[in-house]
Amino acid sequence: MAIRNIIKEGDEILRKKCRPVEVFDKRLWTLLDDMAETMYAADGVGLAASQVGVLKQVIVIDIGEGLIELINPVVISEEGKQTDLEGCLSFPKQYGMVTRPLKVKVKAFDRNGKKFFVEGSELLARALCHEIDHLKGIVFKDLTEEILEEEDE
Ligand code: NI
């Protein structure tokens, strides 16, 4: 496993659409392992492959309840609304209020290519939507009116 470089604001890669994964091979598993390690090292709750420069529909999430790996994820239903402060590892020290669904159901594939469903509410719903947006080239700053910057210590 290896920690990969997280792409930061200004790089066009963050604006590109990711392609679906078609081959569930060792290369994909290495990507997933590296993404999880990178996310944990950066103290994040989610990471999309485009944030490490790989334009594939792959995300990892851990809101403190265990690692979830999602390949080719699609939101299939959503319910309610929640508005809260959101940030992103690609936009260090920037935060904004973002409205997201309160609950979502997502269809995805695991690292072996097996289809599964995950339902999330509150923070997990937020993380799922945020990371799935990354795969479409959408970042949280597109969804907020005001960016709050955290000052250097
Ligand atoms: Ni992000």
Question: How would you describe this protein?
Answer:
The protein is α+β, with helices and mostly antiparallel strands. The chain has a single domain (12-149), classed as Peptide Deformylase (Alpha-Beta Complex). Helix content is 19%, strand content 31%. The chain has two helices and eight strands; from the N terminus they run H-E-E-E-E-E-E-E-H-E. The protein has helices spanning 26-41, 123-135, and strands spanning 46-48, 58-61, 68-79, 82-86, 94-100, 103-109, 115-121, 148-149. The strands form two sheets. Strands 1-2-3-6-7 form a five-stranded antiparallel beta sheet. It has a three-stranded antiparallel beta sheet with strand order 4-5-8. A hairpin with a 6-residue loop joins strand 2 (58-61) and strand 3. The longest helix has 16 residues, at 26-41. The protein is globular, with a radius of gyration of 15 Å. The mean pLDDT is 97. The chain binds nickel (II) ion. Residues 88-90, 130, 134 line the site of nickel (II) ion (NI). Nickel (II) ion binds next to helix 2.
What's a concise summary of this model?
The chain is of the alpha+beta class. The protein is 19% helix and 31% strand.
Which sequence of strands runs across the widest sheet?
Answer: 1-2-3-6-7
Strand content: 25-35%
- Termini separation comes to 32 Å
What is the tally of helical segments?
2
CATH superfamily caption? Peptide deformylase
Shape: globular
Number of strands: 8
Query: Could you say how many structural domains there are in total?
Result: 1
Judged by helices, strands and strand pairing, the structural class is: alpha+beta
CATH T-level topology = Peptide Deformylase
The CATH architecture designation is Alpha-Beta Complex
- Output the helix-strand order: HEEEEEEEHE
Question: Roughly what percent helix?
Answer: 10-25%
Mean pLDDT: 97
The stretches of 5 or more residues where confidence is low (pLDDT under 50) are: none
CATH class annotation: Alpha Beta
Largest sheet, in brief, is: 5 strands, antiparallel
- Radius of gyration (CA) equals 15 Å
What compounds are bound to the protein?
A: nickel (II) ion
